[in-house]
Amino acid sequence: MHRDGSPLPGPTGQLVGRDHDLVLMREFVDEALLCGGALLLSGDAGVGKTVLLDAAAERAHGAGARVVRAAGVEFESTISFSGLHQVLQPLFAGIEGLSDPYRNALGAALGLDQGAPSDQLLVANAVLTLFAQGAAERPLLVVVDDLPWLDRASATVLGFVARRLGGSRVGVLGAYRSGEGSFFEHGGVPRHHVQPLGRAAAAALIESRSPSLAPRVRERLLTEAQGNPLALLELPTALSSTQRSGAGMPELLPLSRRLQAVFASRVEALPASTRLLLLYAVLDGTGDLRVLASAGSEATRMEDLSDAERAGLVYVDESTGRLAFRHPLTRSAVVELSTSDQRREVHRALAAYRTDRPDRRAWHLAHAAVEPDEDVAVLLEQVARANVRRGDAGGAINALLRAAELSPRGYERSRRIAEAAYLGADLTGDLRDVPRLLEEARLADGGRAGPLVAAVAAAHHILLSGEGDLDTAHRLLVGAIRMQHQPYDATDPTMINALYTLAWLCQSSQRAELWQPLHTALSLVKPGIPDQLALALSTMADPARTAPPALAKLDEAITSLDREVDPVRVIRIAMTSLYVDRLPGCRTALRRVLREGRDNSSLAVEIQGLVYLGRDHFAAGEWDELEAQATQGRDLGEAHSYQLLSTEFLYQRALVAAARGDEATTRALTDEMTLWATPRGVGSYLSCASHARALAAIGRGRFEDAYRHASAISRPGELASHVPPALFVVMDLVEAAVRTGRIKEAAAHAAVAREAGIDAISPRLALLVKASAAIAAVDHDATALFEEALAVPGTDRWPFELARVRLAYAERLRRAKATSEARTQLGDAIDAFERLGARPWAARAGNELRATGLSLGAAGTSGPASLTPQQREIAMLAAAGLTNKQIAERLFLSPRTVAAHLRQLFPKLGVASRAALRDALAHLPPE
After folding, report:
1. What SS3 class is residue 744?
2. Is residue 643 within 8 Å of 676, Cβ to Cβ?
3. Distance between CA 575 and CA 504 in Å, rounded?
4. Could you tell me where the DSSP H helices lie in 431-469?
5. Strand 66-71 to strand 140-145: parallel, antiparallel, or no bridges (unpaired)?
6. CA separation for the pair 705, 139 (Å, rounded)
7. Residue 144 C-alpha from the chain's centroid
8. What's 797's DSSP letter?
């Protein structure tokens, strides 16, 4: 077995089932060593990414190139430039040959000297130069595994370098697990997704390595391993001889949990002294055998490693002399099987040994601490200062926040939080008064006013830009709020903005525990919580449980928007309306905000306006408008580093792609969302990605996948607390459950949605809840329930959901031999699906119609009747001679959006220019 547990070469000397991947590796290495380049491998845990990295490294060695290898390590992920230190260690001799600025920048970043502060751009250029310098003698291949565990500073630098290797004879090859985020920016770097093995290859692999398995055991493992090589190799080893023969086969867990259990069982089988020594190795993270020999306790000896080596869990890398784990899940299992007392003891021992590395020593002591400790807080503050000098503001913020948590005195806690706030805000240089506010915080015991302003700006920036994670922003803002004089003043705009920002952070995280500090703060607001803030919280936090009593007040607020001149209040009411289906009433005000935002150069307001209009466009079935608008919003967000809002437009486009059956686009967009959201803790977009994936899977009839994705948002039989998207996947989960034979789960989920009363929130939710009950019902009850769902007034505002319900009803009617009634429902559903361009759904409905004995040709998708209302209006104005700019001003759109609409409508009308529009529209039917 190779180092990551991937399969060894088969009998022919080739990796089983990896011919295509190996060809790609050879082509990449050959090209990179000739003219430079980068490639990223992604794939599930155990799919064989590391063995492909090995193959590439062997190819490069054979070509006479120099190969440098590194891997992200969990513990080192908080230590700035630790990953870069791994990569560059074999190249340290070349640093002396760099120019003074580059040499000093690398020296400071890597902790080799006490040079002046350096920014990451200078460090990145220094690394690029060092690589090019090294490749002048012979080509260089840099191989980095486990990218998600790289510290942020190293990931940023290596991402910069990877995009600038053309003509350099330097190759960078990286690997990361699918679904895990990374601070390594993937944009502009080619990617290759390593697929599971095909059925034939998987069978050949398991036959070659476990030939004694009974045929039915082999078949079951093939089915449940789903082509994952690591599962194919490891799962048989967890079976007893009796089970291998086919008797007493255990019920296996889903793949990811099953693999975790395999690793845990192998670690548990080791002697206690060996497990303890492995814990030292994991928490140290460097693989340095000298650390294990010197820092280990009296209960451990280096000989204890032999049991782990014989078990195939670890090995000593001959090229570096360092201990390495064969798979990341082994490290996870070691930590999970340890106790908190053991972990603290090991951290204390490592801190005692690491006197030569102040940053490591400080973090080890911080992990070992169980109560406030000023000495450790001081050490962390020194780490923060060093991180600033090395250009890593994010690492400095984390160190200062942990130092604040460990500070026994309120003044020191206040000062450290204020400094963290300052660094957070200073990422963009927005707060011009921050130095003065920070000085006030240092001088005053508690510095009540200063830190809050800085913390609000810093948290807002972290949230919008994605420069940090939500936990950091949450801790920063909660700490600053707690330092204010109590009770909090309800008329203080800084405090109210802080509470709004904290609510937005909590909602973006979708973790119930993060809301508790906000509720505590709200209880201290006097004389009471402002109405608008209370209204927002009722629908943002947990709308399934708190929204219904507030809807009358929200409807009143929406009615008043026509007179509202404050764009921030319009945006906040739209935000309040999002999860209770009140966005249609906000449209006019949002379009006004869009226009005024452009006039006043208020970019954040403009982008947020596009966000809420886009959500409403999808609900209303105006998908062409959404596509054009989402492209505009994404471009604006990317250009100005509004990464959170940019990710929203990925979600909107993914929904359209999913509904229209574009699986490649859906996958690309949701992968990008997941990669960005995971390391930053933005749970809302992880739910959004699951929503789009579930929708795509249902459309294609992959109901097992749909069930898995929908269940990731909310488990069957419960409406997940503080996860608003759970409201809108009720029918997805119920339908997928029924289609996969999980009848009890379907009924339980339909029942919990009905009992929660969410059908009182909006016509759409009433439609979905009642239809879910019908889908889960036995046949003789279903008809009445479907009729009840379709009788809900106002549901035509949501044409896609309505058509889906009609389709589900028609399927049930056809099975009940009610052919005529089924045809009526199918006709309406097909019309809607074809108008929306929802091809898989239209095909599914067409199949049902054919099953009733009728066939239906494709509906017309051209001519004036195929235009959307907005396209029709734009076409009429363009035919009248208005320019794109004039049309944009009249309809509150951007000229770019107008141009996109014209490109879409020209083929529908069969024209190639504006000049032909008048004749094409001559027979346009009246609205």
Report:
1. helix
2. yes
3. 10
4. 434-443, 449-465
5. parallel
6. 44
7. 21
8. G
d(CA 142, CA 162): 10
DSSP state of 297: -
AA identity, residue 16: V
Residue 202 · residue 47 · CB < 8 Å: no
Separation CA 673–CA 543 (nearest Å): 24
Q: What's the rounded Cα separation, in Å, for the pair 158 and 780? A: 62
**How far apart are the C-alpha atoms of 674 and 259, rounded to whole Å?**
22
Coil, helix or strand at residue 883: coil
413 sits in which H/E element: helix 410-426
Say if residues 424 and 384 touch (Cβ distance below 8 Å). no
Look up tokens 């094409």; give the residue: 920
| 643, two tokens | 């990464």
Which residue in 469, 468, 463, 499 sits closest to 481, CA to CA? 499
Least confident piece of the model among 188-197, 231-240, 276-285, 835-844 = 231-240
Q: How far apart are CA 407 and CA 417, in angstroms?
A: 10
Residue 605 has pLDDT above 90, yes or no: no
| Conformation bin of residue 913: beta by default, left when phi > 0, alpha when psi is -120 to 50 | beta
Q: Which of 70-74, 116-120, 138-142 is least confident?
A: 116-120
Dihedral of CA 678/681/687/692: which sign? negative
- Distance (Å, whole) CA 511 – CA 509: 5
530, burial (CB in 10 Å: exposed 0-12, middle 13-18, buried 19+): middle
Place of tokens 């510095």: 447
Q: Helix, strand, or coil here: 879?
A: helix
The string of pLDDT tens digits covering residues 335-388 is: 888 899 999 999 999 999 988 889 999 999 999 999 999 999 999 989 988 876
C-beta of residue 82 within 8 angstroms of C-beta of residue 154: yes
Residue type, 645: L
Residue 749 CA to residue 411 CA, distance in Å, equals 51
CA distance 523 to 601: 37
Distance CA 919, CA 927 (A): 18
**In which element (H, E) is residue 40 found?**
strand 37-43
178: tokens are 């699918």
The three-class DSSP label of residue 475 is: helix
Q: Where are the beta strands (DSSP E) in 320-447?
A: 322-325
Rounded distance between C-alpha atoms, residue 555 and residue 538, angstroms: 13
CA dist 180 and 678 (Å) reads 6
38 phi and psi angles, rounded to 5 deg: -140, 155
Residue 905's SS3 state is helix
The predicted pLDDT at position 857 comes to 46
Beta strand pairing call for 170-177 and 37-43: parallel
- Helix (H) or strand (E) holding 67, with range, is strand 66-71
* Average predicted confidence (pLDDT) for the chain: 84
Strands 322-325, 314-317: parallel, antiparallel or unpaired by DSSP? Answer: antiparallel
Dihedral of CA 772/778/783/788: which sign?
negative
User: In the beta sheet, which residues pair with residue 530?
Assistant: none
The type of residue at 584 is P
SS3 of 353-378: the string is: HCCCCHHHHHHHHHHHCCCCCHHHHH
pLDDT bucket at 469, cuts 50 / 70 / 90: confident
Instruction: Please classify residue 335 by burial: count the beta carbons closer than 10 Å to its beta carbon, then call 0-12 exposed, 13-18 middle and 19+ buried.
Output: middle
Are the beta carbons of 505 and 477 closer than 8 angstroms? Answer: yes
Instruction: Give the CA radius of gyration of the chain.
Output: 30
> What is the model's pTM?
0.65
Average pLDDT (738-749) is: 95
Query: For the residues 49-64, what does the mean pLDDT come to?
Result: 93
Length of the chain: 927
Report the alpha-carbon distance of residue 909 to residue 372 in Å, rounded: 72
